[in-house]
């Protein structure tokens, strides 16, 4: 209830922010590029880098809807302390409160980050280097504006620091997320880890067929993603590219990773066929699927998951087939079909009450009371269980397993199942 209310407030505010139409980053670049005015004082190497980034940005912005936004940074009150949520080579992200309530993430250039520092060492031009880094953030803002997907962090607007509406002071106002904690994720139930992998596959499907063409995330790592309400979202888009590698022959098209390389075909159009899609998919395999997908999965689903791991690990599947394979697993899981197929696989040695949905007890999602009964009877500690009213994201109810009948929580709506020596009885 509360979370929903907060979301609505943020949504309403972001609409208000976007409605505040002023000079946008795009309009600034196309109408009054300050780089040209201040440019003469900059070292030629830096000027060339600035030009390249501006070209890159214009190309991405071309054909997009006119950008709105351009609110004042004063509209977004920095929360007490402005807690830093994370930082990378180029950008720093802080938490902030909107004037009307609701929390957002503010992303701006990381003045002390590696990108700006290395540029300063090279060119000794702090202002120009800040602007060079700001182009990356502007590119990200442009991409976030043109791409809409549940797997991409939402852009609420953008604003400029008090120093005037210059590119270097640009700040993106983003949906607030929580940085990805891989170690923590490994301890969540399989169903939640599967959701993250499925979300990633849906994102990669969208990127492969995006309105801007096939998009590759060149810097693809867990730290470029955040979690919002249990959903995975990409936040770092400045290293995304819509270009597919050009080639003359197949030999020009090798997709290299530290542990593996894949020879690809050079198409008649002179592009390495599907290289962007394949790079994303293999990265998803090596950073996400191998860690999150297999362990403590329902045993009957394991052959399907092994096939997904094998087919993405050697790029036998493209993103379309991968998505289809994930949807099939989801269907089997939701419908409980995997139980009919091999009901006896839910054996004692396969079952441990970990990872549980609750720290306090043994809370697992089940398809039906029958599945819960099978789990309980296979577990020496289990004496009884309750099918609760709570449901997971797939709609499966959570069952609470108990070690002794005296632990039972009285609840008029719950059915309590009690183990009777070998067989299972049922009482109210
Ligand atoms: N919307 C967000 N909510 C919370 N944390 C975020 C958000 N966006 C980014 N972060 C955190 O900030 C870090 C830096 O952002 P990122 O865009 O990756 O910058 P860089 O381009 O410098 O790597 C990320 O690794 C992530 O931990
Ligand atoms: C995939 O399976 C094939 C045979 O079925 C095997 O030779 C290959 O090593 C497997 N590859 C991966 C990445 O698991
Ligand atoms: C994958 O699916 C998309 C969208 O449905 C479609 O346009 C495309 O042709 C498919 N590609 C392949 C290789 O099947
Ligand atoms: Mg990053």
Describe what you observe in this structure.
A hairpin with a 5-residue loop joins strand 16 and strand 17. Strands 1, 2, 3, 4, 5, 6 and 7 form a seven-stranded mixed beta sheet that branches. The N terminus and C terminus are likely disordered. The protein has three domains: 175 residues, 2-Layer Sandwich (Phosphorylase Kinase, domain 1); 157 residues, Orthogonal Bundle (Transferase(Phosphotransferase), domain 1); 86 residues, no CATH class. With 428 residues, the chain is α+β, with helices and mostly antiparallel strands. The protein is built from 13 helices and 19 strands. Bound molecules: adenosine-5'-diphosphate, 2-acetamido-2-deoxy-beta-D-glucopyranose (2 copies) and magnesium ion. The site of one 2-acetamido-2-deoxy-beta-D-glucopyranose has 3 residues, from loops.
